[in-house]
Amino acid sequence: MTCTPENVRVLVPHSQFVPVHPVKRCNPCDLMDRAFAKMHCEMVRRLVYQSIRSIENVVFQNAETAETRQLKLNASTADFTVLLSIFLCLLNVDPGLKEAVMLSATPANKHKLAGMLQHLRHTLVVDFFTDEGVSTGCFNHACEDLYIVS
């Protein structure tokens, strides 16, 4: 018997192999989605350095201060947990970093990001700096949970 079109029977319709809903893919440029993943540690470190330079340029008229020097040193030697906390705190104060993160967000994630930034400013950062019981790990998890839920 040969396989001619009239001898071939289709047992399973093609529509069963096509997803009913489109597969949701992460935007490779969405910085917030990637920032929480340890595998993107060097990207976060690069964003932290850029943010510190931006703050030096805008706030301190292109001058390095003792504080920004210490922040750079911390960022260069920090493990991922501390580095992510630095990133999130800088995200709270640096308009350039906020803009970069917002521009990278998918349209569906922009509302999540806006909600997270509001809560970050008014609650999470305040709690992190005033409550000694909030560790860097707890702060990072609270920010990530907020981003997911927003």
Q: What does this 3D model show about the protein?
A:
The protein is mainly α and 150 residues long. The protein has one domain (32-149). It is 65% helix and 0% strand. The chain has helices at residues 31-35, 41-59, 66-77, 80-93, 95-104, 107-130, 136-149. Helix 2 runs antiparallel to helix 3 and helix 4 (80-93) packs across helix 7. The model is unreliable at 12-27 (pLDDT under 50).
Salient structural properties:
mainly alpha, 65% helix
Question: How many structural units, i.e. domains?
Answer: 1
**Helix and strand string, N-terminal first?**
HHHHHHH
| Number of helical elements | 7
**Roughly how many Å is the radius of gyration?**
22 Å
Shape: globular
Helix content: 55-70%
Question: What is the tally of beta strands?
Answer: 0
Instruction: Show unreliable segments.
Output: 12-27
Instruction: Work out the strand percent.
Output: under 5%
- Main β sheet profile: none
- Terminal CA distance: 61 Å
Average pLDDT figure = 84
Structural class of the helix and strand makeup? Answer: mainly alpha
Report a brief summary of the structure:
The protein has 150 residues and is mainly alpha-helical. The chain has seven helices and no strands.
SSE layout and pairing:
Blueprint: H1 31-35, H2 41-59, H3 66-77, H4 80-93, H5 95-104, H6 107-130, H7 136-149
